[in-house]
Amino acid sequence: MVAGARAVARGWSEPHGLLTETPMFEGADLPALRGLVFGGHDIRRGCIFDAAREIYEQTGTIPYPMLRQLAPDLRKVTAELRRGTLLNAGRTITRLADRAPAAKSVRAEVRRLERDIRAFTKRHKLTQCVCVNLTSTEPQLRLGPAHRDLARLEEAIDRDAVRSVRPSLLYAYVAAKLGHPFIHFTPSNAALVPAVRQSFDDSGVPYMGSDGKTGETLVKSSLAPMFKYRNLRVLSWQGYNMLGDRDGVVLADADNKRAKVESKDALLAGILGYPLHTHVGIDYVPSLNDLKTAWDFIHFQGFLGVKMSMQFTWQGCDAILAAPIVLDLIRLAALAQRRGETGSLRHLSCFFKRPLDVDQHDLHQQWHLLADYAQRARQG
What is the pTM of this model? Predict the structure, then answer.
């Protein structure tokens, strides 16, 4: 994401995958790519340049000559990374970490995250700060009274109820307290619980989630309407995903996988309007690294009850698909704040598997929501 933002801003690469760089948003009050400043929290040590070089060695998706030119920029971003939180993160994510010792308390961790973000915005004299949750998929959090109301969440934090939080909840809670727009890019159910959403609403800042729609589910949400438009009855839709990288390691954990599968499997009945047999499998295949492969089998019924089938294979680089979406969402969240918008940003539903407050999962209908918004934004 960082490498691509810098490369596109300097004209070294075409802005493929970036909707905010198309005529659709020409004239809208978007922050310029060249003006974006990156920082964040991480639970792993290391330099961003080394991480980018690892990507080059494994998949070749960042050309090495470009990587060398971007080395100074990537090292500057490394200097802006701070220790992430691991409070109740789950066993697999905790095992992958190497830079996040146990916090003194939940409230102390909240204050530390607040200080880090305040210092970042002050150091760079930023006019806006957008927070994006790009953490690994967490185990689902058992929701209770502490998550229904902001006052009760505050009480839980003050009494150090570690089991009532996840890292994504803490990052979202801090963003809301600081008045920063928030993008929830993972399927973790803890980030935007009602108590946190209440805090965002009280602060009057926009937010959106959840789970970025980058690959197989993107295809599903565009292809499933075709069957509806032709009144072809889908009987079964079986999907199988293979991926490597640390994302695959995390999703190999059954607790973490459950949240992801639920997010990927939720939209078909909503689009088609009837129940059907669906299944989503996810397996860790180390040799694939970040080059994810998905195979889908669709069994459907047509005129005179004749059964037919369709299959497709999706092969894509997860990071290359996700990075421009994150950049679009950062810019669009900043635009929303500049326009005085608050609450969930429903017009961004086309970017998510489980968009907040939006029951429409048809990608074509979601696209029109964004296109209509872009037209208004261009007109000021």
Answer: 0.93
